[in-house]
Amino acid sequence: MEKRNIFFLLVGVVVTVGVIITGSHYAETKKEAMINQGKTEIVKKEVSDKKQEEKEINEFENNRGSLSTVDYLKFVATKKQKATVSFFGGKEQQPEFINPLQNWMGEKLKVADLAIQSVSIPNPSTYQLMTQNSVATLASNAPDVVFFQVPVVGDQEIDISLTNSKQYLLQLMEDIRAQLPEALVILVTPPPSTALKEVYNSRSINYVSYLENLKEIEAEQSFLYFDLHDQYLADLEEKAQPLESTLEADGITLNSVGNALYIELFEKALTQPIDTTSGIK
């Protein structure tokens, strides 16, 4: 009887150990399967993301002749994992302009590494930008897109002739292209002014004449061009809103309303298709 009990006890122990071992093996196998499945899902996602990235790059490359600036920057960011924008030629950009624009562009691009810089000099003009070697400073930032804020007001203030203003601008563009061969360069006009429109230099020319001169240059050279000055006036005319309501008392500086409008027009211009083939290769 005792032998039988011992036998059954041993059988029970063996069965219990077997169950434990089998269960442990099953758990390990299940755990390993789950880990492998997780790895497989990660690999599948990486492959899917890579294919999507390649698809986007191909779409961008196939439409370089009619791509918005935002999509162009997406294209650059996809290839370089970052994007850099520089404002050049105008006065130092203030936070109330740069910060909203950077936030807007960041949301559109979904790029963590987006830098917006400003390269300026005191009282800029095309002549001073050229003689102070400002293009070299610009090139040191290695921007992917350059917004060249043409200093028409500065040219008017220091009495540069329209002919010389054109020559200096063309030279600056040539220098930028030489030092930044893969940068997309876009000329940008300033917001309008009530005060400056009535100011004439010794040549009896106001800043509007330099704007018209710029339009002729753009047409001749087929430069990329955001005419925010005229768009600003057109927007106000459509709303029957006086220009003075968007400026500070000096008739030059944008107030909060004017700054918001200028940013809105700038953002709109960034979504319009342009020829981006002069940029990154």
From TrEMBL:
Entry's transmembrane regions: 6-27
Residue ranges the record marks as coiled coil: 43-70
Domain of life assignment: Bacteria
Signal peptide (residue range): none
InterPro entries: SGNH_hydro_sf (IPR036514)
Keywords: Coiled coil, Membrane, Transmembrane, Transmembrane helix
Keyword Transmembrane: yes
Keyword Nuclease: no
Annotated protein name in UniProt: SGNH/GDSL hydrolase family protein
Organism this protein belongs to: Carnobacterium divergens
